[in-house]
Amino acid sequence: MASLNSLNTTLDLRKVKHLLRRATFNYSKEQLDTFIGMTATQAVNALVIDLPNTLSEPYDPLPTSNPDGYWTSSSELPNSFDGQGRKRSHVTAWWWYNAINQVSLKHKLSFFLHTSFTVGKDSGTGAATYFYDHIRLLDFYAYGNLKVLAKKITLDNGMLDYLDNTKNNKNNPNENYAREYLELFTILKGEQIGEGNYTNYTEIDIQQTAKVFSGFKKRVDRSDIDVDTNLPTGYANANQHDSNNKTFSSAFNNQVINGRNTASGMLDELDDFVEMVFAQPETAKAYCRKLYRYFVKSEWDETIETDIITPLSQILIDNDYDILPVVKTLLSSEHFYDVGDGDETDNIIGAIVKSPLQLLSEVCSMFNVTFPDPNTDALRYYRNFFLYFIHNTYSKSAGMELYNPDSVAGYPAYYQEPSFDRIWFSSNTLIGRYKLIESLIIGKNTITSGNIHAQLDTVEFTKNKTLNPSDPNLLVLEIAHLLYPESIDTDRINYFKSFLVDEGFPDYYWTGVWSQYISNGDDTTIRTRLNALIIAMVNAAEFQLM
C-alpha cells in the first residue's frame, strides 16, 4: 500500500543514491558516504540548505579587448549591450555552476519552478538581464510559497515580455498570459466538457483574467524594486487597466473581483484573483501531480492518486501553498523509497530516464570533471566550455535546450503523454547523450569539433574513488554501485570486465597491469582500458535511469 508515512529505517546505499539523484544536481561518492546511515528525515533536512551562491553573478568575458564583465549589475539599459544570446547562455552557465557546486534541494526545486512557470530564454524574455532576474525570482521562491510566486511572476519583466502581457491594455486586450496562467501555470484545464468549457475554467474566465492582468507593464530600466525579493519588477499602469468588475464563471462560483482604478488597486485585484484560483482544490492537485512526476514517477494509478496525490495536495493547502512541507513529506516517505510495494514491475527506484541536465551534472560531479573556473578563467568557462560545448552542442543534440523549451508548455518529458521522460532517450538524442562521456574523457567535442577545455580523468577516479582497483571484478562492481540505481548481475560484471581483461586472459592480467602502474607511474595501458570501461558503463542502459 502506498504510504506517506516517514521511512522509519536508516538509508542504505541504494536509498541514498535514489534520494541524491532525485533531489540534487550534485551526485558524488563523498556525498553518498555522508548520507548513508541517516534517516530519511535527517537526510532531507540536510538537503534543505540555502547557502549563498558559489558564483555571485554571471560574467561576460567578451569582447576580449573590453569585456562587458558583470553586465547584470550595470546601470546601463539591459538591451544596450551586444551579444544578448551569448549573455543569456552565460546566465544559464552561472546557474548551473551554482547547482553543481552545492548539495542542495534548492536547485532542483528552482528548476521545478521553471517547468511550472515556463519561459524560453531565447524566445521572448528580452535582454539577458531580464532572464537573469527571472531565474533569481525562481531561486528566491524555491523554498517559498507557490501562491506568492504566482503573484510575483506576473510582474516579472521577462515573463511580461515572453507572454506579451506588457502589451495587454484595456482597449487592446491580449490573452496570451491569461490563457497560459490558467492552462499551464496554475489550475490546468482538466477535461473539456463543452465548447470553450473545461473542467477547471472556461473561455470566459480567460477573458476576465486578461482584464485583471491588463495594465501591468515591463520596466525597461529595472528601476522598480520589489520590497519582498529586492529584485527588479514591472509596474502597474492604472491608465491602461480595465477597472470594471470581473465576473468569473461557475467554475469559480461566479466570483466577482471588484475593479480598481489605481496602481495599488491593480495589485489588490491581482491578489484577489490569485487567491480565487488557489482556493480551488484542483490547483493544489495540479502542483502535487507535477511534483510527483518531477521527483517520483511519470505515471501512476488511482491508488497513488488517492493515497499520495490527494493527501499531498491537502498538505499544500493546509500550509497555504508553502512548497517545502509537501516536498519534505514526499521525499521522506515510505512510498518514495518503494517500501511495501510488492509489484516488482512498478518500481520507483530507477523509474525515471535522466534528463540531459541530470546526466551532465551527475557525470561532472561523480567523476570530478575538471573544467575552467569561472572566477579565474572566465573566457574558457563561459565561452569554450559552456557556450560552445554544453549550451550550443551537447544540450541541443541531447534534446534539452536549457531554459529554452520549444514552447510555453515546457519540456515534453514533463507533460507529454504517454512517453513523458522516455522522450529524453530517443534516436534523435542518442548521439548527444552517448558522446558526452567520450568528449569529456578525450577533452574534445566529439559531437562536432573543438577543444572543450574540460577533462575526465578515469585513472584518478579509479585510484581515488575505488577500494579495489587491482581486482577487475571488484572494480567493476564498485563502479556499478556508484553509478547504477540497482545492482548488476554476474553477466553484466563479466561484460564490463571485458574492457579491462581481454577474452581468454585471466583476471590477474589486469592485476599485474595495475601493479605495474603503481610501481612505475606509467598509466598508458590502464588509461586506455579504463577510458573504454567508463564510456561503456556510462552509456549503458543502467546509467540512463535514476
Provide keyphrases for this structure.
546 residues, two-stranded antiparallel ribbon, mainly alpha, two-stranded antiparallel sheet
Describe the structure.
By secondary structure, the chain is mainly α. The chain has helices spanning 13-23, 29-35, 40-47, 84-100, 105-116, 128-140, 146-152, 157-162, 176-185, 203-213, 263-278, 281-295, 302-318, 324-331, 356-366, 378-397, 430-442, 458-465, 472-483, 490-497, 508-520, 524-539, and strands at 192-194, 197-198, 216-217, 235-236, 246-247, 256-257. Strand 5 (246-247) and strand 6 (256-257) form a beta hairpin. The radius of gyration is 25 Å and the shape is globular.
Taken as a percent bin, the fraction of beta residues is under 5%
Low-confidence stretches: none
Number of helices: 22
Strand segment tally: 6
Rg calc = 25 Å
Major sheet: arrangement of strands: 1-2
Separation of termini?
22 Å
Brief rundown of the structure:
With 546 residues, the chain is an all-alpha fold.
Question: Any chance you could write out the topology, listing elements then pairs?
Answer:
Blueprint: H1 13-23, H2 29-35, H3 40-47, H4 84-100, H5 105-116, H6 128-140, H7 146-152, H8 157-162, H9 176-185, E1 192-194, E2 197-198, H10 203-213, E3 216-217, E4 235-236, E5 246-247, E6 256-257, H11 263-278, H12 281-295, H13 302-318, H14 324-331, H15 356-366, H16 378-397, H17 430-442, H18 458-465, H19 472-483, H20 490-497, H21 508-520, H22 524-539
Antiparallel strand pairs: 1-2, 3-4, 5-6
